[in-house]
Amino acid sequence: MEEIDRLNGELKGITVLKGIEVDILEDGALDLADSVLSKLDLVIGSIHSHFKYPSEKQTERVLRAMDHPHFTMFAHPTGRLLLEREPYEIDLPRVIRHASQRGCFIELNSHPLRLDLTDTFCRMAKTEGVLVSVNTDAHSTTDLEFMAYGIGQARRGWLEKKDILNTRPLKSLRAVLAKTMGK
């Protein structure tokens, strides 16, 4: 975090936000201490284990995570990896409604093996007033090219610029992120 602050002091015309992807644990807790999470600009929660829970248990796990005071976005909302792993069972309409009530966001993962916010759920997020973040899940710079797939998926779900979290100017983005972080 200190390095990001130093870098932001030197950069002109670009700002690096402080964020992290954390694991949503079995009980819905996040895998990093509040003392660290509270210093960040955004916290992305994802399921990386226990994919076989029944729908009710998986859904409750995510809802508890979303209620954490430092939770910005639910990523990999179905956990699927096309041709590799089936989606986990989760009541995504309930998760989207909860995100609306809590004021947090949902990821549309642009990676071609994921694309795990379908057009139907994009449309539902829009209807519920939940901002969607179109992300590439990039693990290398070449993965940034996947953004086009996410944009296509968002368009199929009737999402417009105003429905996408990461289309906002920095000042507006910081304001909506701060609300999810208890700031």
Describe the protein.
This protein has 183 residues and is of the alpha/beta class. It has one domain: Metal-dependent hydrolases (TIM Barrel), CATH 3.20.20. Helices cover 37% and strands 11% of the residues. It has a five-stranded parallel beta sheet with strand order 1-2-3-4-5. Helix 3 runs parallel beside helix 4, helix 4 runs parallel beside helix 5 and helix 5 crosses helix 6. The chain is globular and about 45 Å long. The model has no long low-confidence stretch (mean pLDDT 96).
Principal-axes geometry comes out as globular
Task: Give the overall pLDDT as a whole number.
Answer: 96
Overall domain count: 1
Q: How are the strands ordered across the major sheet?
A: 1-2-3-4-5
The helix content, as a percent range, equals: 25-40%
| Beta-strand residue fraction | 5-15%
Assign the CATH topology.
TIM Barrel
Helix/strand-derived category reads alpha/beta
Our count of helices gives 7
The CATH first-level class comes to: Alpha Beta
CATH superfamily membership: Metal-dependent hydrolases
By DSSP, the count of extended strands is: 5
What is the C-alpha radius of gyration, as a whole number of Å? Answer: 16 Å
Ends apart, CA distance between termini? 17 Å
CATH architecture: Alpha-Beta Barrel
